[in-house]
Known about the structure:
Number of helices: 19
Strand order of the largest sheet: 5-6-7-10-11-12-13-14
Shape: globular
Mean pLDDT: 87
Largest sheet: 8 strands, parallel, barrel
Number of strands: 14
Helix content: 25-40%
Structural class: alpha/beta
Amino acid sequence: MASISHSRLYGxxxxxxxxSSGLRPETLGVHRQxxxxxxxxxxxxxxxxxxxxxxxxxxxKMVKAQALTSDVATPTPSPxxxxxxxxxxxxxxxxxxxxxxxxxxxxxxxxxxxxxxNKEELRAQLKQxxxxxxxxxxxxxxxxxxxxxxxxxxxxxxxRTLFQMVQECGLKLQAIMSFHQCGGNVGDLVNxxxxxxxREIGKSDPDIFYTNRRGTRNIEYLTIGVDNMPxxxxxxxxxxxxxxxxxxxxxxxxxxxxxxxxxxEVGLGPAGELRYPSYPESQGWKFPGIGEFQCYDKYMKAExxxxxxxxxxxxxxxxxxxxxxxxxPDDTQFFKADGTFLTExxxxxxxxxxxxxxxxxxxxxxxxxxxxxxxxxxxxAKVSGIHWWYKVPNxxxxxxxGYYNLDERDGYRTIxxxxxxxxxxxxxxCVEMRDTEQSAEAxxxxxxxxxxxxxxxxxxxxxxGCENALSRYDRKAYNQILKNARPNGVNRNGPPKxxxxxxxxxxxxxxxxxxxxxxxxxxFVRKMHAEQDYFQDPQNYYHLLVPLARxxxxxxxxxxxxxxxxxxxxxxxxxxxxxxxxDFADLLDNVIEKVGIFFQ
Length: 600
């Protein structure tokens, strides 16, 4: 058993090894526990964390097999990790429940002119976050700013100044490689287009951009149809992204080596998400429209034709019965109850459409892995929380975005399986939302969607992170996040059954830092930390960062598609066991606010 429970294998590879040993993986799952000797990050000795039961095959990275196998040298704590003897065994156990909290910086913290403005105001805000025990911040590193002057002409000065400021304030950093346009999506109040010289190429070849059925172009991200087409001065789109990340590494090497940057989230589509731009507000989409497929540029159409021909159907074309952005599913021939999506042709198209997205993410993450190899950080990819029309059989809005997810087909575990070969985090949105807050006509299911997607990541043994989709300051939203962060609550004897790797709050603003809002937020951070003191080093809460290893061999698409088999999600509690309070706490807050106003 030891060779299995301490296996470094992930996902499908682990499944193969388990089955070859005569065991079925579902009989082990994330709920099977065993005693495991680990080096306590709060001491210099090897031993059990009290009598901690840790997850041998589960999602929790504080006990991830790669970090805990007996044949891997465990790092000796550095002097700054030494903790006074007042740290009790009980406290040590509770730290295994600690979920770090990060805050997204404003979209234009570095302006479109590549300048870091309002430095002192920003520094003061960062210090406020640090005083509130926030663990770090996340920032978009915009392609459209850095490479704006011309091909391979990178200018990193403003971002270096920003990173230095973050470091001086004692915060960690999550950096997003933002290859998309800022503007045109929900919540975008800033406009930062992709580089002008790329858009100029698009004037002579507009098919480098995503295109809907009526021929409308979307210039916020290059179509994945040109991923491997040398249309950009002899470079392909993937090579553009690769060269940008290489330059980032070269110019931020000191910050990488110092451990400031702990995550590199690789932008893989609009809004930085691994999806198609199926619901652009800039083209008139309004919630809860089903959106439109984005595969009508000549490169994507050619890809589909080749795939259909190989499958023995050269007569098949991309669909023309899919409706418009603001249609409801039943308005279309494709999504209605007995529609095209259920036919052989429809299933083939949807499989091809979603597989193209998975291959896109896989290829770019492989490049990122080679670039950041050996640094103590993790790669991440963001998946969008498309919760509307989740409760109808066709899941229309998810399908147009590229998530081929149906009641009888899992569209997210395939993504998680692909991410597993890169040791990458799956970052998911909308964890603050509740079903009861959504309009009935939208047939939304954010709670069920979050449960499905997080379970998909954990079943493939990858780390999952979360974000809120919309800015919220209320206790109901924070309590929902707390529930999803530890779906089965805190374990006072060690690691919880389930735990996300981290949460990033959207986003830093004057409203967040004001009065009642900031008081509640500070309480939220404390609860995410399981009522424990702030620790700068992730090892203190069993979130071991090891040098990034080379990606495992490419997983055959046939093996990835085995993950479409629907599995029951892990059970989630109905409410958080550590909350920021409810209606009575809100009442007290209102009294405090009024008293404060009176004395002012």
